[in-house]
Amino acid sequence: MERFLPPAPIPKPLVIITPLVESHIQAAIYCSKKHGMQIRVRSGGHDYEGLSYISYQAPFVMVDLVNFQSVNIDVENSTAWVQAGATIGQLYYTIAKKSPTLGFSAGVCPTVGVGGHFSGGGYGMMSRTYGIAVDNIIDARLIDVNGRILDRKSMGEDLFWAIRGGGGASFGVIIAWHIKLVQVPKNVTVFTVNRTLEQNATKIVHKWQYVSEKIDEKLLLRIFLGKANSSQDGKETVQASFVSLYLGGADTLLPLMQQSFPELGLVRSDCIEMSWIDSILYFAGVSGEPLDILLNRTSLATYSGSYFKGKSDYVTEPISEAGLESIWRTVLEYPEDIEMQFSPYGGRLSEISESATPFPHRAGTLYSIHYAVAWTQAGKSALSRNMRAIRRFYSFMTPYVTKNPRSAYLNYRDLDLGVNNKGNTTSYEQASIWGLKYYGINFKRLVHVKTKVDPGNFFRNEQSIPTL
After folding, report:
1. 118-148 in b/e burial notation, b at 16+ Cβ within 10 A?
2. Could you give the CA distance from residue 2 to residue 304 in angstroms, rounded to a whole number?
3. Which domain of life is it from (predicted)?
4. CA distances in angstroms from 229 to 121, 204, 232, 237, 432, listed in the order given
């Protein structure tokens, strides 16, 4: 991401290692420990704050898992082994080549590396049906601080629990995941319905808050919110784009929507039936491209070619219509383009205990909010202006979101929430400032696991789990 490129005052790695075999990773760990160097592990390089490839504590070594990309599908048992350096696009592509009725529940952007994405949670368009990625992981291979290669049995259930949502980089180098594939119908239905404020968007979004978490779990109704040109005199307005996946046909979806959410006004012509793998292209914004575009590791990133800052929140109580109107006014007041994405929870997500994995956002969560600001202008003043804008907007949203703690999603990494001290001196209390936001009641257990498996805190970064 351009935010971290020169002239940004961020140290570069002393060495970049691209291991070909597992023993190369073991050697990198031994050597880095011996010479007092930090390690950063990069599986896809999608970390919002760049922590997989930069460090604010030089010198450091980057271990880039670009050569660890194999995906082995076992159709008979509906499982797969996927190496940490593969992208979710590569995983989806390989599954689809093997079976038209198998898929996996993970994120939307195909260029994200599975090593980090899975270890942070892995929310996506099938999460209400099948849970997130971590809910479908059955084994893993990890190299620990002593260079041992461990699987679920040899690492033990505590460590296996920790890496499924607690971030893998705090505990070792994850080299592969064993995942349970999920059933998808031959055809799914997608739609994108846009409504501006003049088209009653406020009332529709307000109702959505009461519907999206309770509706049939085969349906995920997501909303993208941002500025658009109004039909009235070309003024700016706010537009809500309802972007959805239904695991079934349009003939079943339409009566379901008419019964549960008639306010949206979905009609047959809005609905497009396609295969599950084509829906991956649809949500990535590359419909109609050949499937092998999913093998491209670089050009599909939503904010590719621009500077970007993201933040996140969770909502447990619906926001009133007056509250929504206040939010729209604020969006329109900002000269910067701040976008929001409301992602519904409920369904399978709510059925799993908040302590089953470190990912705590379960029953009682209505939806998550993702905030983004992207800009193309280089230079410090544009950077400062946009960063200040999204931080101010985040502050403005305080009354509408979770409190004590104000929750956040690890995969939308945000160093504004707090960072560890340089060196090895971060206390549990200090790390709790950001740790409770990501992990809730699970943070304490993560710290205990970390203390047990990496007592010297070798695997650390600006937001790694501390030791006691």
Report:
1. bbbbbbbbbbbbbbbbbbbbebbbbbbbebe
2. 9
3. Eukaryota
4. 36, 19, 8, 6, 43
Active site annotation includes 334: no
Q: Residue 233 has what pLDDT?
A: 74
- What is the spatial distance between Cα 91 and Cα 126, in angstroms, rounded to a whole number? 15
Largest Cα separation within the chain, whole Å, is 67
Look-up of token digits 């909010």: 369
The answer to whether the Cα torsion of 266, 268, 270, 275 is positive or negative is positive
Residue 330 backbone phi and psi in degrees, to 5: -65, -40
Report how far residue 331's alpha carbon sits from residue 397's, in angstroms, rounded to the nearest whole number. 11
Q: Rounded to an integer, what distance in angstroms lies between the CA atom of residue 256 and that of residue 250?
A: 10
Q: Where are the alpha helices (DSSP H) in 73-112?
A: 88-98
Element (H, E) at 159: helix 157-162
Round the average pLDDT of the chain to a whole number and report it: 95
Look up residue 465 and give its two tokens.
């789990």
Q: What is the pLDDT of residue 305?
A: 59
DSSP 113: B
Name the 3-class secondary structure at 82. Answer: strand
CA dihedral 206, 207, 212, 218 (to 10 degrees): -140
Summarize pLDDT for 317-357 with one digit per residue, the tens. 999 999 999 999 999 999 999 999 999 999 999 999 999 99
Taking only the tens place, the pLDDT of each residue in 149-196 is: 999 999 999 999 999 999 999 999 999 999 999 999 999 999 999 999
The residue-averaged pLDDT of 416-428 equals: 91
Q: Is residue 215 a contact partner of residue 272, using CB atoms and an 8 Å limit?
A: no
pTM: 0.96
The whole-angstrom distance between residue 125's C-alpha and the CA centroid of its chain comes to 12
Q: Which residues contact 173 (CB under 8 A, 6 or more apart)?
A: 25, 29, 39, 41, 63, 65, 84, 142, 143
Q: Which of 53, 409, 412, 438 is catalytic?
A: 412
Residue 80 has phi, psi (to 5 degrees) of -155, 150
Give yes or no for residue 39 having a pLDDT over 80: yes
